[in-house]
């Protein structure tokens, strides 16, 4: 008995250390299999990125609405594979029926996911796919190649026939989301990596101040450009500050659909952003978890939750919504 | 032949010891000359101004870091304290507090943190590395808690963003208020370190604390004062950061602490305390930004830029060690 309470204490301590129990709506024993009661665990990359805050709040609300139990854990920083592995292990330990996870790296947490699935837990990737994709039961995410392609198609249309001269401000070297968006953009605008039409490119890790500095340095090299690709909206804000300081008005596109980003588009800082829908990912993931608990039925494959171009200057051939619609559907604080 | 070689090396070592800012100044000049010759764009007034502007935040952090390293300490929490201060200032401003008051409150918080660090180092005798490592973790979390998942944009026209305002001196030289403030801070600290009793005490404490104590210097009080002043400087770095990017972001400057140490080390200040100068640090901060700007204009991938910066840091410390050995 005493040993057992000691074990509880140690477990509680480890849980505290392993980080960041954000929400736990249940206590006590795990639901027996087949009881129909869904217990959903959400593992995000970090707790503080507004995108993941939206994901978490939406999943929590959906779980409450559908009578599922819900807990959320997160890594401590972008790239914290170890923290995510611990989160998965803790959730399996506590008898979740489904884990929804935005994996920090496509390969870093595969072993832990495999163990969870062997223990009978359904695992769904949200937002970011695993590699290989069938390491999880299903993926609910933005098709980032398609999102990048839409940005590229918009920029191409807005250039109205003039030959593109592009600066690309990418995210983090080696990240799949960044690579997909980058490749999609090139596809949409009709260029290849290494094309001389790409007058400059650099990584800014999605950080506004780094993006500003990189853009300033690239502009010093050449201001002969007519379009800018940015990997996300903080990057676009940094790039815009650098362009504005030089008095340049350059056609710029971005991706994300955060409310601040949509507002930036409305204010004319950049022409368009491609919105993705974290709330939809979370809601559909929770719905799948509830279905699984009731019927044992699992979704499979890649389920695209869609992306939409947001702009107040629509281009023929590129379907889009205006910023008023964008502000109604954006994620993060309005 | 051999004798003369040895003699020349000895005098070179002594030279570096006498004037620690000479090495970095030479490196900076060489880098500027190389980039001016190899690109047509580097040596433009606008670009040179930009390079200075890009180095301001890390340069200001490095200024406080210099004081601490002069006492043979180190601060791993400075950038985290700065980021926390940017968020506090921005949140207060958005909440309706006047900009001036928000600024003062933010600076007071970082100064108080400096006081806490200094007290733990002197009274509890904890190594500065450990104290600031713990603070780094706590302050990073605190900034994220304050931010609640959201970056906080502030109006570009507000006092908190004022340091980013650009003016043209003599009709053509672009200068921001942030640069002016940095220059004033460097001059004040240069004066305090080289022309006042306090400055002599700081160097003495870093060189040989026991000797300093025996000669009547209040070692603990000096060290606490250094952390307090450094804390004030980190608060001003937060103001610089908001001038540069008027958007307080809990995820910004994750490597700011290491960047500040890089600048100090490149500036010729010894990590073992007691030797170094604020102007060396100024050079060190500039060297990193000059390298990044110039290499970008040459079209060098940013990962190779990181490799170059890292190699330079190791080389700088090697020079420091060799110079000491030859003394």
UniProtKB/TrEMBL annotation, chain A:
Location in or out of the cell: Cell envelope
Start and end residues of each Periplasmic binding protein domain: 40-297
Keyword entries, A-Z: Signal
InterPro entries in the record: Peripla_BP_I, SBP_2_dom
Ranges in a coiled coil: none
PROSITE patterns: PROKAR_LIPOPROTEIN
UniProt GO molecular function: carbohydrate binding
Main localization of the protein described in the UniProt heading: other
Top-level division of the source organism's lineage: Bacteria
Protein family (similarity comment): Belongs to the bacterial solute-binding protein 2 family.
Descriptive protein name: Sugar ABC transporter substrate-binding protein
């Amino acid at each position: 008995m005493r040993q057992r309470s000691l074990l509880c204490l140690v477990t509680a301590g480890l849980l505290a250390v392993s980080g960041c129990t954000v929400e736990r709506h249940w206590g006590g024993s795990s639901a027996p299999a087949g009881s129909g009661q869904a217990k959903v665990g959400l593992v995000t990359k970090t707790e503080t990125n507004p995108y993941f805050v939206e994901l978490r709040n939406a999943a929590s609300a959906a779980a409450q609405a559908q009578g599922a139990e819900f807990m959320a854990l997160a890594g401590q920083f972008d790239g914290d594979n170890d923290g995510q592995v611990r989160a998965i292990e803790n959730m399996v330990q506590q008898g979740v029926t489904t884990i929804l996870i935005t994996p920090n790296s496509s390969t870093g947490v595969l072993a832990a996911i495999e163990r969870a699935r062997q223990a009978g837990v359904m695992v769904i990737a949200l937002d970011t796919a695993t590699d290989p994709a069938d390491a999880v039961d299903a993926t609910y995410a933005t098709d980032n190649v398609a999102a990048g392609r839409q940005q590229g198609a918009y920029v191409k249309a807005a250039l109205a026939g003039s030959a593109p001269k592009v600066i690309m401000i990418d995210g983090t070297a080696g990240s799949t989301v960044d690579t997909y968006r980058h490749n999609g953009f090139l596809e949409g605008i009709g260029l290849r990596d290494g094309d001389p039409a790409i007058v400059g490119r650099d990584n800014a890790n999605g950080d506004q101040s780094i993006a500003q500095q990189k853009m300033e340095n690239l502009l010093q090299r050449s201001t002969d450009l007519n379009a800018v690709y940015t990997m996300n909206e903080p990057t676009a804000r940094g790039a815009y500050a650098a362009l504005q300081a030089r008095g340049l008005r350059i056609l710029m596109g971005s991706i994300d659909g955060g409310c601040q980003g949509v507002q930036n588009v409305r204010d004319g800082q950049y022409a368009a952003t491609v919105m993705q829908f974290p709330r939809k990912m979370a809601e559909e993931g929770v719905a799948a978890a509830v279905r699984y608990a009731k019927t044992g039925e699992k979704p499979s494959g890649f389920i695209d939750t869609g992306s939409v171009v947001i702009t107040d200057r629509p281009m023929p051939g590129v379907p889009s919504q205006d910023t008023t619609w964008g502000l109604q559907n954006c994620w993060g604080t309005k | 032949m051999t004798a003369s070689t040895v003699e020349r090396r000895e005098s070179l070592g002594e030279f570096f010891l006498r004037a620690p800012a000479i090495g970095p100044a030479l490196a900076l000049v060489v880098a500027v000359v190389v980039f001016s010759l190899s690109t047509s764009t580097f040596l433009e007034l606008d670009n040179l101004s930009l390079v200075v502007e890009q180095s301001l935040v890390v340069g200001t952090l490095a200024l406080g870091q210099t004081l601490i390293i002069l006492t043979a300490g180190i601060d791993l929490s400075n950038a985290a304290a700065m980021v926390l201060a940017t968020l506090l200032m921005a949140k207060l401003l958005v909440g309706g507090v006047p900009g001036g008051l928000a600024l003062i409150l933010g600076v007071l918080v970082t100064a108080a943190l400096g006081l806490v660090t200094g007290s733990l180092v002197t009274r509890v005798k904890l190594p500065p590395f450990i104290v600031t490592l713990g603070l780094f973790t706590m302050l990073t979390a605190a900034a994220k808690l304050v931010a609640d998942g959201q970056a906080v944009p502030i109006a570009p026209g507000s006092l908190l963003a004022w340091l980013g305002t650009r003016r043209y001196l003599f009709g053509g030289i672009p200068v921001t208020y942030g640069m002016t403030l940095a220059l004033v801070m460097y001059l004040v600290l240069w004066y305090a370190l080289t022309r006042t009793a306090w400055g002599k005490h700081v160097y003495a404490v870093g060189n040989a604390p026991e000797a300093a104590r025996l000669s009547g210097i209040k070692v603990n009080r000096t060290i606490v004062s250094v952390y307090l002043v450094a804390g004030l400087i980190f608060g001003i770095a937060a103001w610089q950061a908001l001038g540069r990017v008027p958007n307080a972001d809990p995820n910004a400057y994750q490597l700011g602490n290491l960047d500040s140490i890089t600048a100090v080390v490149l500036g010729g200040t010894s990590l073992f305390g007691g030797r170094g100068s604020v102007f060396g640090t100024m050079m060190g901060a500039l060297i990193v930004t000059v390298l990044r700007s110039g290499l970008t204009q040459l079209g060098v991938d940013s990962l190779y830029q990181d490799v170059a910066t890292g190699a330079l840091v190791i080389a700088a410390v090697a020079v420091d060690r060799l110079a000491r050995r030859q003394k």
